[in-house]
Amino acid sequence: MKSKLFSDVITNKKKSIDLQLNDANNELIVKNRDKLRSIISSIVFCGTHDLALRGKQSDSGNFQDLLKFRIEAGDSVLEEHFKTCTVRTKYTSHRVQNELLNICGLVIRKNIIEKINNENTIAFSLLADETADISGIEQLSIGVRFVEKNNDSVSTRICEEFLGFVPLEKLNAEHIALEILSFCKRNDINMSKLVGLGFDGCSTMAGTEGGVQRLIRDKHNKALFFHCASHRLNLVVNDLNIVRGVQNTVGTIKDVIKFFRESTLRRNLICNIPMLCETRWSAKYKSIRVFSENFIEIKKVLDSLPTNAEVNRATRARAQQLSSATSETSFIVCMQIIAKYSAMLEPVTNALQGISVDMISVQKHVNILLDTFRRHRESDLDSTFDIIFKTATAVAQHFEVKFKIPRIVGKQTYRANYDAKSVMDYYKKSIFIPYLDSLLSSLNNRFSSQNNAAFLLYNLHPYYLRKKNQKEFMDTIKIINDFYHIENFNAEAEIWYNYWNNNDIVITDETLILDLLQHCQFFKAIAQAIEILICLPPTTCTIERSFSTLRRVKTWLRSTMSEDRLDSLCMLSIHRAFVFNNKESFVESVLDVFSKNSRNLKFAFSE
C-alpha cells in the first residue's frame, strides 16, 4: 500500500500530503478573504457616501444595517460567516472598523504619494490651510499639486490632491511648519521635488521673516511661496470698504437678506437669495447680483410689511428700518455700482477655482479686469456711469424716490464736500470714482509679481518668447537656471528659442502651458522647467473644498469622532472617484494590508 501511494505521488497521479495541506490552507484563506471583502465593501460604501457607520448602540447603525441588507440581497458568504463565526472572528467591531478605515486612507494616500515620488514627476507644490471643526479642534488640511504623466510622457494632466487633516495644538508658525514637515516625512514624500507653497495671506502662514512659508523655505529653498489668487481677489473686494458708501450699502444688503432668510414666512415672500458670505468667494458676488436683479420685488415687500397687521410688532419695526435704508439715494446708486462690478468679478472667481488654472491664466484674468476697469475710469468714465445712473433712476422711480445731493456745509468733518453741478455729478465724484480707484489700486498691489525666478518661467511660452530678442531671452534663462539648476537648460533654451522663431506654428496667449509639453519630446530640460511652472500653486481651492467635506463628515451628531477615523472618512469621501473606478483592486489592497498582522482568521497566502 505504501509503495503504491509513493508511486502515485512520483508519477503525479496524486498530490503529496504537504501539497494537499497547502491546497486546503489556500482554500481556507480564499474563503476568509471573501468574508472580509464584503465587510470592507460596506465600510467603503459608508465612507464614500458620507454616512455614519455607528449608531447609538454598537450593534446598530448604517454599517450593521448595510451588512444585513447584503445578506438579504443574497450574500451567502457573509451570511454563512455570521452563522459560524465567534465574537472574536466576526470582524465588525468598532476597533476593526477604525483599523480598516485607517488602512483605506493609507492606501489612497500611498497611491498619490507614489505618483509624486515617481521618477517621471519632476516637481510638486504643497497646499495647506486651517479651519476649526464642529468640536473646536483646529484642523490643518494638506494637499499637493503636481503633473501626472503616462508612460508616453505626452498624455498629461494637472492633479491637485487632498492628503489629509492634521489636528493642531498650537496656531503659531513654528508648530504649523513642524506639523507640515512631519506629515511629509511620515508619508515618505520626496521633498527634493518641492517647488511651491500655496497658503493664504495671513501673517502666520505668509510672513517673510517668521511665517510658515519662511520656515519651510529655510529647509527647502526652491519652494517659493504663492498667496492664493482667490484669497487675494476676495481681499481686493474687502478693500473697497474704505469707500464709506460701499461699506454701508453692503451692510444694508446683508441685513435685508438676513431679515428675510431668518423667518420661513418672510422667506416665502421673495425669491431665494443666497446669503452674502464674506468667506465664500462666489456666493458673495452672486448674492449681490441676485439681490440687485430682484430689488424692486424685495423693496415692495419691505414697504408693505410695516402696515401689515398679520405680522408681529418686531417684524413691522425692522421692516420699517430696512425700507427707509433702502430708499436712500446713496444706497440705490451704490447698489447698482457694486452689482455691475460683482457681475464682472464673479466669472473670474469661478474660473480661478479650477484645477487646470495656472499662473499665466491667473495673470491673464487679472490683466483683463485691470484693462476693463482702467477704461471705465479713464476714457469711458462718463458713459459708464451714465448707464449706471439711468438704471438707478429707473429703480428709484418705482418707489417715487427723488434723487438729491446731501446737505453741504462750509466745514465738513465726517464726509467730503464735493463741488458737484448735479446729482449725477455728485455721486460720480463721491462714490463711483473712489470705487474704481480703490479697485484698480488694490488689484495692482495684490497681484504684483513677487517671485522673479518663477514668473520668468513664463518666457518659455512661445507667445511671450517671440516678443523678446535672443539676448533678452537668454538673460532670462540664466536667472532661471541660477535658481533651479536644471541640467543642460541653457543649451536647450537656445534651441527652443530658435525652434519657435523659425517655424509657423500658431501659438496665442490662449494656448495652455500644459499643451506645450507635447512639443518637448526632444527638450528634456525645457520640459522640466515647464512642469515646474505648471506645478506652482495659483490657488488653494482644493484645500478649501476639503473644509466642506469636513463639515459633512464631522457634524453635531458625530462631534466626538477620533482624528484617525475623521481623516480616513474624509479621504474616502474626497477620493470617491478613485475608489469607485478601482473598486476591486482597492478592496484587495486594503485586504492585503490588513492581513499583514496576525489575525484569528488567516487572510494572507504567505502564512
From TrEMBL:
Q: Which GO terms describe its molecular function?
A: kinase activity; protein dimerization activity
The protein here is known as 52 kDa repressor of the inhibitor of the protein kinase
Q: Which SUPFAM superfamilies match?
A: Ribonuclease H-like (SSF53098)
Q: What is the lineage of its organism?
A: Eukaryota, Metazoa, Ecdysozoa, Arthropoda, Hexapoda
Occurrences of domain DUF4371 (ranges): 56-208
HAT C-terminal dimerisation domain location: 518-576
Write down the InterPro entries for this protein, in alphabetical order. Answer: DUF4371, HATC_C_dom, IFN-induced_PKR_regulator, RNaseH-like_sf
Q: Which UniProt keywords apply?
A: Kinase, Transferase
- A Pfam family cross-referenced in the UniProt record is DUF4371
